[in-house]
Structures are given as C-alpha cells and as structure tokens.
Amino acid sequence: MKFPLNPAQQEAVEHQNGPMLVLAGAGSGKTRVITQRIARMLERGVPASAICSLTFTNKAAAEMAERVAVILKEGGHRGQSVKQMSISTFHSFGLSVLSRERKVTGGTFTIFDQGDCLGAIKELLSRVGVDRRFDATEVMTRISNAKNAFIAPEELREREGDDYDEITKIVYPRYQAALRNFHAYDFDDLVCEVARIWKTREDVLSRWQKQFRYVMVDEYQDTNRAQLELLRLLAGEHRNICVVGDDDQSIYAWRGADVRNILEFEEHFPGAKIVKLEQNYRSCAPVLAVANAVIEKRTDAKYKKTLFTSKLGGEKVRLGQAPSPEAEAAYVGREIRRMISDEGRKPKDFAILYRSNGQAKLFEEVLREQGVAYRVVGGTQFFERKEVKDVLAYLKLSLNRSDEISLRRIANYPPRGIGETSLERLGTYALARGWTLWETIERVDALDDIPSVARDGCRALEKTIAHARKRLLIERAKGSVVARELCEQLGLQKEITATSPSPQAAARRWANVDGLFGLLSRRESREDAAGRDASAERELMTFLHSLTLNSQEEEEDPGNVVTLSTLHGSKGLEFDVVFLVGLEEGLLPHSRTLDPRASETAPQDIEEERRLFYVGVTRARQLLVMLRARARMVRGKPAPRTPCRFLSDIPSDLVEEFEVKDAALMSTDEMASNAGNLLAMLDALGK
DNA sequence: TGCTGCTCAGTTTTT
DNA sequence: CTGAGCAGCA
Fold first, then answer.
1. CA of A363, C1' of B8: distance in angstroms
2. What is the CA A635 to C1' C2 distance in angstroms?
3. What pLDDT digit, counting tens, does each position of A42-83 carry?
4. DSSP 8-state symbol, A656
5. What is the pLDDT of residues A391-434, one digit of tens each?
6. What stretches in chain A show pLDDT beneath 70?
7. Quick check: A59 CB within 7 A of strand B?
C-alpha cells in the first residue's frame, strides 16, 4: 500500500477548489485518494473543521476517519485532528444539522426506525378506513421513494392509475403530519428536511455554507435526488465539492439512488474537473479481463472506463456447470477445503457470493459439514429483536412523551390491563380533545368509559415513566442504569420467562436485553471519554439517536472465516478467491426484475443486474470461480435452468469451462478426502 | 388473550 | 417447499 500515487490519483489529490468528479473504477484506490486529498488540504492550511466528508454507511465513515487519523499521526498537518472534521454518513450529518437547528425545527425529537414508521403507517391506513386491504410496507416504500426523489406530500401528482399511488397520495401528507405531531423524523427526513430548511431559510443555509467550505462525497453513484439537493445547497456558494464514485457499480436504483446524479454532475456543477481512475490494484489480469468484458457490453455508457493492471499472474477464470445446486455447493465446499490444505490458503481468503439470501443455506450446510468456519454477511439480522425494541421504547418514551409509537408499543407490555379496546378509546379521546395520547393517559381519571383495570394500568404506566424521566433528567442517571431499573420494576425478566416457549428461548431473549445494557454502558463510557457537555436531555437524546442510527451494532473482527454474502453486501470488500454462484436466468437477472409485473423500467433494471454481476467479479483478487446449476427446485418443483445472460458476453477464451461432478459420482480419491475430513471433524468434536 | 391451522408469496438493504 | 402472517376458535 505504500506505492506512490499514479498520475490520475495525484491529480485528484492535488485539486482543491471548484467541483470535481472522480470516476473511480473498482479497486482503483479511491479511499486512498479521498484520505490523501484531505491530508493535502490540511497541509495547505485548510482548517479541519471546514471539511465535510459524506458516506453512506457507518462502516465507511469509520474507516475513512481511521485512515485520515493514521495519516495525521504521521505529522506535518499543523496539529489538526480528525475529531474536528465532519466525517459522517448523510443521515448522521442531517441529524446533527437538525439538532443544531432546534429553533427552526422546534425542540427535541425522536428518530423512527423502519418498524416505527411501519407501525405509524398501519395505524393511518386503518384510520383512513380504506375498503381494500393495502400492504403497509408497499405504502411505506412509496412514501420513501417520494422523499428520496425530494417530492413533498403536496407535490405528489394526482394522475397515475395505480391504487397504491392513490392511497399514497392520501397517506403521505397524514404520515408526515403524524411524524411532526410525534416530534419524530424518519430516516429519509434526516436528509430531506435539512434540504427543505436550507431551501427556505437562506440565513440558516448561509451559516452552514460558511462552516463547511469543502465538501466530499463517497459512493456518489448511490446518492438520491434529495441528497443531491442537499449537496447543491451546501456547496452552492463556494462550489468546493468533490464527489467520488463509479457508475458501473450503481446497484441501488431500487432504493432511490439516481445514477443521473453522477452522469450529469457536469450539468449540476458546471466547469467540473473530471478525473478517471482506471488502474486497478486489486485483481489479476484474468479477472480484470472478464470484468471489462462484462461491463463493456452495457447499453448505457457515458463515461467509459477500461480497467488495467500491472499485476502479473493469476489463474484463469473458471466457469463450471453443476447438475444441481447441491452439487454446486458441494463443489465449492470441496474446493475451499482443498485450497486450504493444498495451497495453504486461509478461510478468510474466500468468499461465496450470490444474488439472494436464500441461496446461502446450502453453502452453510456444506461448510458446516466440512468443518470450515464461515460468517454470513447482512441478511437483515438487524436489531429488530422485540425485547430490545421494547426496552428502548421505554427509554424513548421517557424522554419524548409525544412518541406515540413507542407508547403504543409498550402501553400494555408487560400486560397492565390496557387492552386494545381501552387503548382505542383513549386514542379517540386524544383525537377529540386535541391531546396527545400520553396526555390522555395522564388525565385518564377525567374520562368515562374506561374500565377500572385499564385506569389502574394507566396510572401505573404514568408512574413508571415519570420515575424514569426523573431519574434520567433530574438525577442524571445513566441510560444503562435506568434501563436496568425499568426492567427490574416492570418484572421484564419474569415476563419474558413466562411468555417464551422454552427456557432456552427465554434465556436467549433475556441475553439480548442484557446485551443491550452492555451496549448502552459501552456507548456511555465512549461518550464520557468524548467529554461533551450538554443538558441531560440533549445528551440522552443524542445517545438514543445514535442507537437508532448505528443499529448495525459494532461488528466484531470477523476472524479467519469464509465470507458468505449477497452481491449487494459484497460491495467494497475483496477476497483472494471468489465463488460466484447461481449464475442462472431468474436468479442473476432476478425473475422479479424480468417479470412484466413491474410495469415500468425493464431495460434499466436488467442493466443494474449486469452491474451487480460486475461488482461480484471485481471482488476477486486472484481467482474467480463462476458456477451455475442446470436444474433447480423452483417453488417446490424441479425446473431446468438457462445460464445467466451476462455469461455470453464473456469471450470463451477468457474462461476455462468445466463440469461439476454429481456428488454421487465422486471419485474414490475425493471420497477418501471427504472421509478424512469427517474423521478430522469427529476428532475436533472429541476435544 | 393465546394458539393452531390455513393461505399466500417468494430480491437486493442502509440509515 | 418453506416461512410469515392472519383468522378463527378456545
């Protein structure tokens, strides 16, 4: 990694003022360029506090901060520190703007995660009383799409025949009003609302423009319309904006990313300097040749890039066809085993990449059989665990009693007599008198028609929350401490034990709650170290916000294990050996993108699948093995499969084709090796 | 209120 | 074929 910068990289690093677009091909050292560029600016006397660097994931932000810190440690940067710099995700950047503009936004607020938003939408849907049953998730997606496209509720166009457009038109404004009423923002708001405030309040915008005189954006091809709006406003005056991205790796159009942002950068920021990074430092020539062949055939090129490398060697790319997915998986397992024992490779050198999560299962089974350690990346294992969300809801409610979603979540959990009917009645009162739901609970004694059990429940809840609130805000107790006290007071452990199907399940769920305590304490000590001094309320709000925003949970060092990941999840990672599996029509261009069910945008969607394939190919450093099965069970029925269409864009001399033998026809050699593995496993178990 | 059985759908995912 | 979500029943 200590190579000197190549001329293109140098050019990007030295540039300082005015707009610049860096088209960074896969593996072309883009993170290095960004970090070096920051260092260079600091050397030239730009104050760290004037730099704002935006990414999409917490991981990317942390990595960038880390790498800048390393450079700064090497000295020569006038004692500037990363801490003064704003290196963050779009969302946490938006959050910090909204937090600091509380005069404009009106006080403290909560952030609703997806579950909270879905709850709100379900509630609204039932209140609207539509005759047909609508899928709340679909409505949520539509609203999110509108926000990503920077379309306000009143701007949604009337036309378009889809029933969901119709219902979205009705629900979106109400949803937005409900959020404001709850003093809540959803994830999309963290970007949109900042742009909206900046757009309407020039005085506010001007302050932020003066603060951040240099703006940088990573993975620019993933930005949506709202993010573009935000950037145009922030950089509108000084135009010191540097964006880095790769249109060939644009794979998130389906969640609002708009490739036009990168393709039309010159129009958005006239006079922009454009730099292409085409030298690849990751992959060997045979892998790169395949990557280039795949991306060359794309139908919508504007900036053409051709990657090259000076790396020598590397094995020819392999393309195998297996009789079945089981045989495919068995082959991958065998090969990994073989390369570990014969070639001295380590588990962490391998990745198995697939289009959809369901495909992981077979590979997990095989690796387990082979006794090879692995991890599965992603797979929506968020911290959506009910018991954790319940405890957090108590904390959130203690700080923000307008947070109706949290209130509804725990109103009768653990059961305290506030049944569905009572809650509904309370809701009706709230609506009629213009109180919040919480105020209604506080004033339950003044209401009729509430059963006395529910009345008692409301009083108990009121007492619990009031106490927690006092502990947090007046006595300034730590969140982790209050969380423990709450659980104690609520008898949550008992409740969990009583409602779990088995003692093991109960133990697991309680362990999650306990894990939350640990997570809270760890965060607290980190915050303490940062030594910020604010009011207890603000401090705790910030704290809860960071919990919602960093839901990923600090990932531990993956260790020496094989990586299983979706193609989407693999972006930004690299491995010596990559197995690209399930390269079949219907799986790689996924059937859902092929089907005419989605009426619009067919050719574009397929191009996105091509780029997905390209992303997979470019993950490999030394060896790429592509695989497909000739038949596969589809919805319980066996079906013949055709090879992925993108494979036919690869000249046959670039790949070595082979047949994967059926497990039943394995040679005695392989059987012996498998038996050996089995013995080794038994041996390991014995110890 | 909680469980059981039935129906239906079946990508990708961060914040 | 599987899993999730819901309706209907106890």
1. 28
2. 9
3. 989 899 999 999 999 988 999 999 999 988 887 766 677 788
4. E
5. 888 998 998 898 888 898 888 888 888 887 888 888 888 888 88
6. 1-2, 76-78, 129-132, 158-161, 379-384, 501, 527, 529-534, 551-557, 595-602, 663-687
7. yes
- Kindly write down the DSSP assignment for every residue of A567-607, as one continuous string: TGGGTT--EEEEEE---BTBTTTBHHHHSTTS-S-HHHHHH
Q: Can you read off the two tokens belonging to residue A517? A: 């305590």
A499 touches strand B (CB under 7 A): yes
Within 7 Å: CB of A419 and strand B? yes
Q: Which residue is closest to B1 in terms of CA–C1' distance?
A: A419
Query: Which residue is closest to B12 in terms of CA–C1' distance?
Result: A568
B3 nearest neighbour residue (CA to C1'):
A501
Which residue pairs, CB below 8 angstroms and at least 24 apart, start in A10-18?
A11/A275, A12/A37, A12/A242, A12/A275, A12/A277, A13/A37, A13/A40, A14/A40, A15/A242, A15/A273, A15/A275, A16/A40, A16/A41, A16/A44, A16/A46, A16/A214, A16/A240, A17/A238, A17/A240, A18/A239, A18/A240, A18/A271, A18/A272, A18/A273
Which residues of A carry out catalysis? 30-31, 218-219, 249, 619
Residue with tokens 């423990």: A484
